[in-house]
Design brief:
By secondary structure, the protein is an alpha/beta fold. It is globular, with a radius of gyration of 36 Å. The strands form 10 sheets. It has a 4-stranded antiparallel β-sheet. Strands 10-11-9-12 form a 4-stranded mixed β-sheet, with helices on one face.
Length: 874
């Protein structure tokens, strides 16, 4: 089979992928004759559109699973999607709004019908996009976090944790999004520094006494104050402790309490206590038995507890309260303040801490074994520095608010008897009260946090809570590939749930990558309009080019910048391999050559030695998940050593009449190319498959062929070293010609004085082709002519007649003119840098750039002067 003149990605990628799917190459079943290797895909949201983060994350997983598959593992990459409670519900609500329908008027059952219809229509979109990337998942195992099996797993986990006393329902301060109208976990709150103020408000003592001044960043919440707190060690307020002050506006008497929580250095040293709207104040209230008054509704308006401000939106209430305090002379001061404000990770609305009755999961007991697993090294983060982030989160973990005020999601399996008020948590639907027998039963309206179900992902997708063959064979999984931004959301929770539900860690490696930024280093976002659509890149350049550009730029744990130039370079790399492969096919007809009658020349020994080194290095990098280093090694070897050097070194023998030499060259070309294609396959699956199948290998596909192994070729080290020396010599000849501006087409005689007889006749052939020699003559002693260009390397000393290279007088004139130009540039740059107006007013990067220019000009002028000096001696 011959390859077309050019590689056309659009024609081949979809066809090849469909063939792989039809032939079942991605499928993996338990096979106890093999060692398992399992990756679970971080499930993308069904609301999702493939973005560059998905492309990077899935390229890495696919590269690893293809590598392990070729190594002979029972390699399973298990895919699936996440129902994404908040994001999906927002989509459905928006869709209803466009139709003039309010969610509540539709009713829960009809809303869920809409949601499932939306999921069926759009939920699989990102899966099809992942296929375009070349993802070799076992799609026959695709799971959805709300499919029947996973829903049963969620209910089972909830019931078991509840029965252990780890899940409870209570009134606690939670993070509340007034826009999404649901509770959020701590991990779902993003903090942003904002400009605000610190308001100083006087709370007078009864009978118009002096009272106390408090400082607050949220004056509107004072409507729900139930105390003022001071530090017991603060002598300024010792006389006030145990007494009362009057809460302005509400005109109610509240106590002054002493608590170590108060920072004496902040504000005035006295703080207002609003237990229903601040987690720390809530703890103070518990210690001092203070009443708790909630003054905000779920959608951010002041409720009836706010007196005359009832019905006013919180931001407007703040402004009006500040004005009223001014009018009453109680606003003592206002100072600017920068502080972090919590925002909803989905809609970016300011989050309100609110007292609410919710379901919580007690985390400290779950966290202990999960912390120990990483401390002992049972689970390792790659790179290791992410251990610190994990430990910091886990050691300071709070109970997790797991209930969400939504309809789309796993409904909490808790049932309430409307008659005796009994709470029943059950795996199965409850229709009759277990305490009083009443059938007046109502299920909890809330759903579980999405991360609860995805926390079970590594084992629920394999059949838990049933004791399945898949669980026995594929669990624990091996490596989790993920971005550092969801270590708290997902990674930590999977570790805790895995140890709790399975008694085993869910994976032993967490391979952490950074995020992809734009070429300026900015995070990609809709507001900046700097997002890159991977599908557009695939359409223009092909999936392989996108994948390889990502692979060669990835560094463990670090962010990377996206440049279109990288994709173009990757495409050019693919074209170079394609053309090199066409050359090999043209000369070998795709045949496989056995080793009988093979007589390896130094060039063959060199490239086979280099192949062994590359196989070792790439395999080691793949095993340690250093994908960027592995890709770079393959790139350097294929582009430079194989294409630029060995193919050129092979041409004299391929064009020659000596059959053994020709067969050996064909054997080596095929051996090296096919093995290197296998190394490249995890990164560029489509290109490598099409080339590989053009050869008569007898293999069904490159993706199920064996991963390359180092092969012994006898003592080839000395020959390889000689070739390295020859390549170094040829490079020196090329560089010398380039400095003299000699075009490649201009050939000259080359005289070779070999040190110790290392220079073989074979090497002379290579000089003819690669060093532009018209004739190679061997001499028994160095030439001592001033008309010769002399080049000395370890292998040999080479002499080239200068008269055959250049017209010396013309070259002297050209270099003289060039040097004068450089001198002018040096003068200009110095003048600029000696100008205080420029140095003091221009941006630092502009001044630094000018200094770099001057330095390079001076260096270039020195080089030209030396070359002129040498040329004038001739």
């Amino acid at each position: 089979m011959q390859l077309s003149k050019t590689y056309e990605t659009k024609k081949t990628e979809s066809t090849l992928y469909q063939e792989w799917m039809e032939k079942g190459y991605f499928k993996c079943e338990p096979d106890f004759s093999k060692k398992p290797f399992t990756i679970v895909m971080p499930p993308p949201n069904i609301t999702g559109q493939l973005h560059m983060g998905h492309a990077l994350d899935n390229m890495m997983q696919d590269a690893i699973i293809r590598f392990k598959r070729m190594q002979g593992y029972a390699a399973l990459w298990l895919p699936g999607t996440d129902h994404a409670s908040i994001a999906t519900e927002v989509k459905i609500v928006d869709q209803l709004r466009q139709e003039g329908i309010i969610k509540e008027s539709l009713g829960r059952d009809e809303f869920l019908k809409r949601a499932w219809a939306w999921k069926e229509k759009f939920g699989g979109r990102i899966v099809e996009q992942l296929k375009k990337l070349g993802s070799s998942c076992d799609w026959s195992r695709e799971r959805f976090t709300m499919d029947e099996g996973l829903s049963r797993a969620v209910r089972t986990a909830f019931v078991r944790l509840y029965e252990k006393g780890l899940i409870y329902r209570g009134n606690r301060i939670i993070n509340w999004c007034p826009s999404c109208k649901t509770a959020l976990s701590d991990a779902e709150v993003e903090y942003e520094e904002q400009d605000s103020y610190l308001w100083y408000i006087r709370y007078p003592a009864p009978n118009n006494g002096e009272g106390v001044i408090v400082a607050t960043t949220r004056p509107e919440t004072m409507l729900g104050d139930t105390a003022v707190a001071v530090n017991p060690n603060d002598k300024r307020f010792s006389s006030l402790i145990g007494k009362s002050v009057i809460l302005p506006i509400m005109e109610r008497e509240i106590p002054v309490v002493a608590d170590d929580y108060v920072d004496m250095e902040f504000g005035t040293g006295a703080v207002k206590i609003t237990p229903a709207h601040d987690p720390n104040d809530f703890e103070v209230a518990a210690r001092h038995n203070l009443p708790i008054i909630r003054i905000l509704t779920d959608d951010g308006y002041v409720n009836d507890e706010g007196g005359k401000y009832a019905g006013i939106y919180k931001d407007d209430a703040r402004k009006q309260i500040v004005e009223e305090l001014k009018g009453k002379g109680l606003l003592v001061d206002i100072k600017p303040l920068k502080h972090n404000v919590g925002q909803c990770y989905r809609c970016h609305e300011t989050v309100e801490p609110i007292i609410s009755r919710q379901w919580f999961l007690s985390m400290k007991e779950l966290a202990k074994p999960a912390i120990a697993a990483v401390e002992k090294g049972d689970i390792s983060f790659i790179p290791e520095r992410f251990n610190k982030i994990y430990f910091n989160w886990m050691n300071n973990i709070r109970d997790w608010c797991i209930s969400r005020q939504l309809w789309w999601g796993h409904r909490i399996p808790a049932y309430y008897c409307e008659d005796c008020k009994e709470t029943i948590v059950s795996l199965d639907e409850v229709t009759k009260c277990t305490k009083c027998g009443s059938k007046n039963i109502k299920q909890d309206e809330d759903v579980l946090d999405t991360w609860f179900s995805s926390g079970l992902w590594p084992f629920s997708t394999l059949g838990w809570p049933d004791d399945t063959l898949d669980l026995k064979f594929f669990y624990p999984t091996n490596v989790l590939v993920t971005g550092y931004d969801i270590i708290f959301f997902w990674v930590a929770r999977m570790i805790m749930f895995g140890l709790e539900c399975m008694g085993e860690i869910p994976f032993d490696k967490v391979c952490v990558h950074g995020i992809i930024r734009d070429s300026q280093g900015r995070k990609m976002s809709k507001s900046l309009n700097n997002g890159i659509d991977p599908l557009e890149i695939i359409d223009k350049y092909g999936a392989d080019a996108l994948r390889f550009s990502l692979a060669i730029g990835v560094s463990q744990g670090n962010d990377m910048r996206f440049y279109y130039e990288k994709v173009e370079a990757a495409r050019n790399f693919g074209n170079k391999i394609w053309n090199a492969s066409r050359f090999v096919l043209m000369n070998t007809n795709g045949e496989m050559f056995d080793e009988e009658g093979i007589e390896l020349a130094d060039a063959d020994k060199w490239i086979l030695s280099r192949l062994n080194s590359v196989i070792t290095e790439v395999t080691d990098h793949m095993e340690s998940f250093e994908l960027g280093l592995a890709a770079q090694k393959i790139y350097d070897f294929l582009w430079s050593e194989f294409c630029d050097w060995y193919i050129e070194l092979s041409k004299p023998r391929l064009l020659g009449d000596e059959p053994t030499s020709k067969k050996t060259a064909c054997y080596t070309l095929t051996k090296v190319l096919l093995n290197t294609l296998k190394l490249l396959h995890p990164f560029m699956p489509f290109l490598t498959e099409q080339i590989f199948m053009a050869f008569k290998t007898g293999e069904k596909s490159i993706m199920i062929s064996d991963w390359p192994k180092v092969k012994g070729y006898g003592d080839i080290g000395a020959a390889a070293d000689r070739m390295e020396q020859l390549i170094k010599l040829i490079r020196s000849i090329r560089n010398a010609r380039a400095e003299l501006n000699v075009p490649p087409a201009k050939k000259t005689r080359v005289f070779v004085f070999s040190k110790g007889g290392k220079f073989s006749e074979e090497f002379g052939l290579y000089l003819n082709r690669l060093a532009f020699a018209s004739d190679v003559e061997y001499i028994d002693k160095p030439l001592n002519s001033k008309d010769m260009l002399s080049i000395t390397e370890e292998l040999a000393q080479v002499f080239i007649p200068l008269g055959e290279l250049v017209d010396i007088e013309k070259e002297i004139a050209r270099m003289t003119e060039e040097r004068e130009h450089i001198k002018d540039e040096i003068k200009r740059a110095k003048s600029k840098l000696e100008n205080p107006g420029f140095v003091n007013k221009a941006p630092k990067n502009v001044v630094d750039a000018e200094k770099e220019k001057l330095s390079s000009y001076i260096e270039l002028e020195q080089q030209l002067s030396q070359r002129l000096k040498d040329a004038k001696k001739l």
